[in-house]
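Please review the protein record below. Let me know how this chain folds according to its tokens.
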Amino acid sequence: MVREWKILKKFDDEYKKQFKDLDDVVIQLLYNRGIRDKKQAVDFFQPSYEKMFDPYLLKDIKKATDRIIKAIDEKEEIVIFGDYDVDGITSTAIVYKILEKLKAKVNFYIPHRIQEGYGLNKKSIDFFSTKKTKLIITVDNGISNFEEVAYAKKKGIDVVITDHHEVPKKIPNALAIINPKQKGDKYPFKDLAGAGVAFKLVNALVLEINKKKKKEIISPGYLKWCLDLVALGTISDIVPLVSENRIIAYFGLLVLSKTRNVGLKELAKVAGVDLKNSDPYMVGFQISPRLNAAGRMAHAASAFELLITSDELEAGVLSMKLEKLNKERQDLVLKIVNQLKIDYKESKINNIVLLKNEEWNSGIIGLIAGRMSGELSRPVFCMAQEREIIKGSVRSDVDFNVIETLSVFEKIFINYGGHKNAGGFSLKIEDYNLFKEQVLQYGDNKLKEEELKSYLNIEKELEFSDINIDLYNQIKKFEPFGNKNEEPLFITKNVKIKESKKVGKDSSHTKLKLTKNGKDFSAILFNHGDVGDSLYYGKDIDIVYKIDLNEWNGRKSLELKIEDLK
């Protein structure tokens, strides 16, 4: 993958005057994150739970809580209809735990990814009808299910939608829709994850019930213990970690570090991680993939059951099951991606890349699309065939609006949805050739060369003399890192190589000792063993890197994690 280096615009003198006591690097990081005054900086560095927005600002929230309270009081069957990714699973668990504590007659339903696909479906509604269900609460889905909501209504079932996905032109006629992105919604923050929206619903529900009963049925303190699940959903769904999401991630990771959740404790043991050191990397790369593996390779119900169980033995068994599924998922994706890399090595690449294979299952196509978009610097549409339907997943590492593009082809799709950088769709097999022709033509006609570039956004140019433990500690204050608050990348030019050696399994990493103006640093370049061959003693290079703290045998030292070099 060829990535262009882009050093972000430097702050001006007027901006600097506001932050006289801060180092220039810290000022630059604040400026790059859109923080424009001292008050915003204080809010950023000192997240406050009390500054979470009022759930009653969400449109339809009162309608939703009133209907749920009626269902609880009248012992009506409530079904929480979830989704099979981590955001959907955690959203389901959050609402389920609170309703169970409120002694509601509650059940859950997470569709099978391959057999049913995403969102409400008529077959499941028929099943709920036979069980005398009177209320469905969707979490992390529902905003695109116009026909299914109408069908549920015909069956005498009310639907409360909680979702965070982009709102289509035609919205369902549900009893209540809770989605900050919908028209006329006054909620000030639009980028909550599904778990964040679900958490807002239970917050409002608890406030209403406590007010109605004139006593604290559930305390605000109890709700805070759900923040580990809210943070898991928020971080894993890669929503922007700014504003309210930063507060959720910050306090959610604190809760995760001392979680009471038996399932998460057992999963951490199996994964070999210490929850006391919880951070977005652990969530995104160690916990979430194991939870996601259930829905990708089997059924997401296993991951949900892990999150709600209070039985250590059951949690241990379920954790081992997820570990096994995750290993199978890793091996399968690696095998497919390695073959695709070979296939595309010498091939002419279209502006939009279409990948399709009848042997793939829809649980892994998002992962393949993500890896290949990074590899090819192109938007990638990855598809699997299931019975008479083609299911697709779209990922883009370049400047390409996925949901906007999918909307162009909405007449061909059975359904579709997503965000700017990721989306999904399904279509009939007989429509595939037409779809392929139109998408490739769209890519050729509409996409400009600059839109097909992947950029490394570099915060600031540093000299080795600028790098020290104090700077590292200042950067740590910007945590938790994530979308829109990425871990900072810096550039240093004309660095000389003193030592170079390949390390790791299959010699896939390169360990370096670098020097400039008499100051040395150790550095590591991951997963670029081929590049290691060209890194010889005495060579001058420019490097883009993150600053990390390496601990070995009780000794701490700064290390540069190289993202790219020239």
Residues 348-452 form a domain with the Diaminopimelate Epimerase; Chain A, domain 1 fold (CATH 3.10.310.30). The first strand starts at residue 3 and ends at 7. The longest helix spans residues 312-344. The CA atoms of residues 268 and 274 lie 7 Å apart.
